Every structure is written in C-alpha cells, then in structure tokens.
C-alpha cells in the first residue's frame, strides 16, 4: 500500500494544491494553513496542518476530498509534478 500511496510531506501537498490553482490564505497564530480556490461558483477550502506531516492516509484522503478530488487523483497529480 505504501508503494502506491506513499506518505506526503507538507511541501508535496502544497505543490499539488498550487498545481490545482489553490492559493494560500494568510492565517495568524496557527500552524494550519487554509488553501482556497473558487471553481464554477463553488468555494473549495483545504486545511493543511504542516506539523502533522508526513501525513497519514486518512489526512491525505480528507485533504483530497476538501479539494474536490479522490485520493487516487491527488496522487496522480503528485506523480506528474
């Protein structure tokens, strides 16, 4: 399983989100980063908690879903970068 879905670092997740057109929203006093994108009139918001990296499969799945994707699609993009 770890071969197909290796752990992702904070840098990896940010690169995927940037590729998808998300931008970081400034936050104060928290380790969580909010990445946002509006597409087809819908706001997508992904919370990235860098101190938890490398991220568990549960967190990666959650971040992918927040971005409107399935985990496998998140990894497909990661492999292209």
Automatic annotation (TrEMBL):
> Would the keyword RNA-binding turn up in this protein's UniProt record?
yes
Q: Which SUPFAM superfamilies match?
A: YcfA/nrd intein domain
| Keywords for this protein | Endonuclease, Hydrolase, Nuclease, RNA-binding, Stress response, Toxin-antitoxin system
Give the source's domain of life in one word.
Bacteria
User: What GO molecular function annotations does the UniProt record carry, in alphabetical order?
Assistant: endonuclease activity; hydrolase activity; mRNA binding
Q: Which InterPro entries match?
A: HicA_mRNA_interferase, HicA_sf
User: Which intervals of the chain form a coiled coil?
Assistant: none
One Pfam entry for this protein is HicA_toxin
Q: Which family does it belong to?
A: Belongs to the HicA mRNA interferase family.
Q: What is this protein called?
A: YcfA family protein
């Amino acid at each position: 399983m770890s071969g197909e879905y290796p752990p992702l670092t904070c840098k990896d997740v940010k690169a995927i989100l940037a590729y998808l057109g998300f931008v970081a929203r400034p936050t104060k006093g928290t380790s969580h980063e909010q990445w946002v994108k509006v597409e087809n009139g819908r706001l997508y918001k992904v919370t990235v908690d860098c101190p938890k990296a490398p991220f568990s499969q549960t967190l990666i799945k959650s971040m992918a879903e927040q971005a409107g994707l399935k985990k496998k699609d998140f990894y497909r993009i990661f492999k292209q970068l």
